[in-house]
Design brief:
Strand content: 35-45%
Largest sheet: 7 strands, mixed
Distance between the termini: 67 Å
Mean pLDDT: 91
Radius of gyration: 24 Å
């Protein structure tokens, strides 16, 4: 009875779209060119519909998703608009299987049917949503930004914190703890500068500069215990490049690492994390016993900015005492191959380290050569995520809570805007083909949004961020000071 109802709904969709039927179609021996490119991707069973349209102008499009258990056909005048409920029914019935996708278009008075392609419906589910910052892709003006959250099973978007609430400032590095948004750390810059740390229903505004000479805390990562937050302290500069396709380079003149003990309001560090080298981007292993970070030898900046090469290191951390180990180990010496490592993120199952490899530096968003690489902690070997990478920038990334999916930003679409892509990672660290975050009308949405997605991360459940409490803390002016 359920399947009969589903067939009726599918037929209704055809009628609702104008009773368009594919007749006497010419069979083509090539795959369709579609936007976004969803051909041969692997998707979670709980993802929103993969709406798309053909790159060429057509009068109508008809698409059939055929599984071993059930199928769905949808026809549209322009962009495919799949019913959300029908889509989820289709995926649930064919989970762990493959959908054969047939695309037909009406063009020049006749129908043409392209070569079928496949989509794999993975048994690995994905988290509730994504949270991210939207920001104009400029070089120095950071107005009209905000923190948002997207339900991955639908197209629903909610606002976490609107940038219009800020007076001449910006917010950045909104970081949760292993996809748990009840824990977060967010920097607010400008005249009302503060770091807002949230644990459950408690919000605290911090001044994380014990002395005026202290560098501001920038890149953030939570210790899995929820008791500590790791920060890099960076003195950041940027230089404009007149004869380079990258146009700009962002670099640190100095940087160190410290960890905030939230219970004692103390910053913890080690002489090994505060040297003349540039230590940055701390992260913790899932068991909390290891801190990973990048470090580079100092150079004459900005003149020698292309000589800054970061390697990936680790140091032990005792969560009971808040003490670091006495030895720093080098895990990946990218400098020996003339490369640099940025944005290392451990998978939450403890198996892999995902990072970005660039020619130099660590602010990879401006590097067209930036690619995603994965390090297998068991075998101590690295390889690129071939099917996820493109000819343009792949940058900031994070793992889903089950360590099966990765979200990252890429500039492959137009070379300027950083847009979100999701990719499945198997048990051997091999990536499937990445797919763009679905939208109801993707071409219209991404053409009109004109903003870059920044710092995307998965969310286990809807973020209930009390923006009124945060706004009061930011503007009230009192800050919790810290000391070493």
């Amino acid at each position: 009875m359920v399947k009969y109802i589903h067939i009726v709904v599918a037929l209704f969709l055809l009628t609702a779209c104008g009773s368009i039927q594919v007749k006497d179609a010419e069979e083509l021996a090539l795959y369709p060119e579609i936007y976004p490119d969803y051909k041969f991707v692997t998707i979670p069973v709980d993802i929103a519909p993969l709406n798309f349209q053909t790159v060429e102008d057509v009068d109508a499009i008809s698409v059939t998703f055929k599984g071993n258990v059930s199928s769905l056909t949808c026809t549209s005048r322009a962009c495919l608009d799949i019913d959300v409920d029908d889509w989820h029914y289709l995926l649930a019935e064919n989970v762990g299987d493959t959908l054969c996708v047939s695309v037909s278009v009406l063009k020049d008075g006749g129908w043409k049917t392209y070569k079928d392609y496949e989509i794999v419906v993975s048994k690995d589910s994905i988290d509730y949503g994504l949270h991210y910052r939207l920001i104009a892709p400029g070089y120095g003006i950071f107005s009209d930004m905000g923190l948002y959250e997207r339900d991955l099973s639908t197209f629903d978007v909610s606002t976490i914190y609107a940038g219009t609430k800020l007076e001449g400032g910006c917010m950045n590095c909104h970081t949760s703890n292993k996809c748990d948004t009840k824990y977060s750390s967010t920097h607010f810059r400008g005249v009302h500068g503060a770091t807002i740390v949230r644990r459950g229903d408690k919000y605290q505004a911090y001044n994380l500069k014990p002395t005026p000479e202290e560098m501001p805390c920038v890149y953030t990562y939570w210790h899995p215990s929820g008791k500590y937050v790791g920060y890099s302290q960076n003195e950041t500069r940027q230089v404009y490049l007149a004869a380079d396709s990258s146009k700009i380079e962002v670099y640190d003149t100095k940087s160190d690492i410290a960890v905030l003990d939230i219970d004692s309001n103390k910053l913890l560090s080690s002489p090994l994390l505060k040297t003349d080298y540039y230590e940055t981007s701390p992260t913790f292993s899932p068991d909390g016993k290891i801190m990973y970070f990048s470090t580079a030898a100092p150079c004459n900046l900005p003149k020698e900015y292309e000589k800054v090469k970061y390697v990936l290191c680790s140091i032990s951390f005792d969560a009971q005492t808040g003490r670091f180990g006495e030895v720093v180990d080098t895990l990946i010496d990218a400098r020996s191959e003339g490369k640099s490592i940025a944005w290392t993120r451990p998978s939450y199952d403890g198996r892999f380290l995902l990072y970005t490899k660039v020619n130099f530096g660590q602010f990879s968003i401006w590097h067209h050569e930036a690619d995603l690489w994965i390090y297998d902690i068991q075998t101590k070997e690295s390889h690129p995520l071939v099917l996820a990478n493109s000819k343009d920038t792949e940058s900031y990334h994070n793992w889903s809570s089950n360590s099966k999916w990765v979200v990252f930003t890429s500039r492959r679409d137009d070379g300027y805007h950083s847009l979100p892509y999701i990719v499945h990672i198997d048990e051997n660290g091999i990536a499937a083909k990445a797919f763009m975050l679905p939208q109801r009308n993707p071409r219209e949405y991404y053409d009109q949004e004109m903003k870059s997605y920044n710092l995307p991360d998965f969310a286990l459940e809807p973020t209930k961020y009390d923006s009124n409490v945060v706004e009061a803390l930011v503007y009230r002016g009192d800050r919790q000071d810290v000391c070493y």
